[in-house]
Design a protein that fits this description.
The chain has seven helices and nine strands; from the N terminus they run αβββααββαβββααβα. The chain has 244 residues and is α+β, with helices and mostly antiparallel strands. Strand 7 and strand 8 form a beta hairpin.
């Protein structure tokens, strides 16, 4: 998908080569993104020629499941990925098959066991803060699995759907879906409430933890510091993640 977007950008910006696009969150295949942020570098002349019609032209050329909401010149030092200070995801689960909305089947998990959000929140509390989340991540050579989990909670909506909200400084591969799988196992009674913290403490990927499907997961929002702190944040993140 990113290659397709870059090709469309090349047409709109009338460049000879597709511009390199940097996104805030590299989601797993099948994950939705409602609040994705991206940046690319173009010359002042190219942007001046394209600015007035860029949003309209992009949306006329992109596939129907991709839409651009806004484009602007970024502040100095901005990096869509490394300047971010948090990402917020949601995960939707329906535990009532008689109440499952077939029109939401592409963004909601249908779970066959009844869930208790109170138990899920109790289990999730132990994961808050900075930890090594290796037990819930697919490791990449040389990449850190230390993350700061800012929020992980579950709430039953009036529709009966349970929505999980997950916020962290960043996520490693499969982290949200593995955490959700571990918490759901507590919520439906298959694991004790301290089962999630026990897995976290091992620092080793537990094959008993189910990595839930990707389609109910959505990147909702990305947060950034004040403009004056963007460059420093990007440098710090690169150093911590071992990418610069």
């Amino acid at each position: 998908m990113q290659d397709e977007v870059e090709a469309v950008l090349a047409r709109v910006l009338r460049g000879s080569e597709p511009p390199a696009l940097t996104v805030a969150g590299r989601t797993d295949a099948g994950v939705h993104a409602r609040g994705q942020v991206a940046h690319l570098d173009v010359s002042d002349a190219v942007w001046a020629a394209a600015a007035e019609t860029a949003v309209r032209r992009l949306n006329s050329l992109l596939p129907p499941d991709v839409r651009v909401h806004a484009i602007a010149v970024a502040p100095a030092g901005f990096d869509a990925r490394f300047s971010a200070i948090w990402r917020r995801y949601s995960y939707r689960v329906c535990d009532r098959l008689d109440g499952a909305d077939p029109l939401r089947r592409h963004d909601t998990l249908w779970h066959r066991r009844p869930l208790d959000p109170a138990l899920m929140n109790e289990a999730a509390m132990a994961c808050l803060g900075e930890h090594d989340f290796a037990a819930f991540c697919r490791r990449r050579p040389g990449a850190s699995t230390i993350r700061e989990l800012i929020r992980l909670d579950w709430r039953r909506e009036q529709t009966g759907v349970i929505t999980g909200t997950v916020v962290a400084d960043a996520f490693c591969h499969n982290m949200v879906r593995a955490l959700a799988g571990a918490v759901l196992a507590v919520g439906d009674g298959r694991r004790p409430a301290d089962g999630v913290s026990a897995v976290l403490a091992t620092g080793v990927r537990d094959p008993a933890v189910t990595v839930l499907p990707a389609h109910p997961l959505c990147l909702e929002q990305v947060g950034y510091p004040p403009d004056a702190e963007l460059s420093a944040r990007a440098l710090l993140t690169r150093r911590v993640r071992g990418t610069g």
